[in-house]
Write a structure and sequence with these properties.
alpha+beta; Mlu1-box Binding Protein, DNA-binding Domain; Endonuclease, Chain A
Length: 286
């Protein structure tokens, strides 16, 4: 009897071992499951746990939900089945003592060996699949985090383009970014002037502002004092490390802005909302 094709569909991996369940073995041997288990019980000393084990409740429930489809089969299952490893199958042929059992056991053990070789030869492929799934899970989490932030801060767009001449529209968008802040605004822009401070004055009350700009800025300490007298609190820091413009809101939102804030809409530029996990790297390197 050639049962090779059936055997491959019945081999499961449980407890990181390849096994076949008692009901499937009984079908292959042409006997009732009860008869097979009775023969095992009469020779239980030949079947240590690495030869045979009974599924626990979790394994049993998982197997039922994935592999037992018909209602009649489910109704007939009163206890968790026993699982036989390759060594257990080899021992069964001696316990059942029939020519059929011997021949079937040989084919089953050959199937175990074939499956083991297949797994070993394709381990790199399986690792790559696991890696892809892990990356997909991570990507899905990032997307979920982004949508959570968008809901929290009522963000309608994560990116956009303003063309030359859309000065008013660009400033309205910038002020919508500022309106999201409840604690802190950090602006990194090498070309800050008084017009930028004027826009920052539209922030919510109690929100602090930190600016990183070029040491050659035209903003003076007197400008900062006048700003703070009406819209506290502004801190001015200097940096020569940054080329692009970044706007950080409450240490949760990171915007990349393609134009200096004093020049919004004068020429075509774009903005985008970046991954918030980049905030710490930006601040460490400013």
């Amino acid at each position: 009897m050639d049962v090779g094709k059936d055997i491959r569909t019945k081999i499961l991996v449980i407890r990181e071992q390849q096994v076949i369940l008692d009901r499937d073995l009984a079908e292959l041997y042409g006997v009732e499951t009860k008869v097979l288990n009775q023969a095992v019980k009469r020779n239980v000393e030949r079947f240590p746990e690495n030869f045979m084990f009974q599924l626990n409740d979790y394994e049993y429930g998982n197997w039922r939900s994935h592999f037992v489809t018909s209602n009649s089969d489910k109704m007939g299952l009163r206890r968790p089945p026993y699982a036989f490893t390759e060594q257990g199958v080899g021992m069964l042929s001696g316990v059942l003592k029939s020519e059929t059992a011997i021949q079937v056991s040989i084919q089953i053990m050959n199937a175990f060996v074939s499956m083991r070789h297949f797994l070993q030869n394709n381990i790199q492929l399986f690792d790559e699949i696991v890696s892809i799934k892990s990356h997909q899970i991570e990507a899905d989490k990032r997307i979920d985090d982004l949508f959570t932030l968008m809901d929290k801060y009522k963000i309608d767009e994560t990116q956009g383009i303003f063309f030359q001449g859309q000065i008013f529209d660009a400033y309205v968008k910038f002020e919508s970014f500022l309106a999201q802040a409840t604690k802190e605004i950090i602006l990194i822009d090498n070309y800050v002037d008084l017009s930028v401070l004027e826009r920052l004055s539209k922030k919510n009350k109690g929100v602090s502002v930190t600016i990183y700009t070029d040491p050659k800025t035209k903003i003076t300490q007197q400008d900062i004092q006048k700003f703070n007298s009406q819209y506290p609190t502004l801190t001015l820091n200097y940096t020569s490390k940054m080329h692009d413009r970044f706007l950080i809101i409450d240490n949760n939102l990171l915007y990349h802005i393609g134009a200096s804030l004093k020049d919004l809409g004068k020429k075509c530029f774009a903005f985008e909302l970046l991954d918030s996990r980049l905030i710490s790297s930006v601040l460490q390197n400013v």
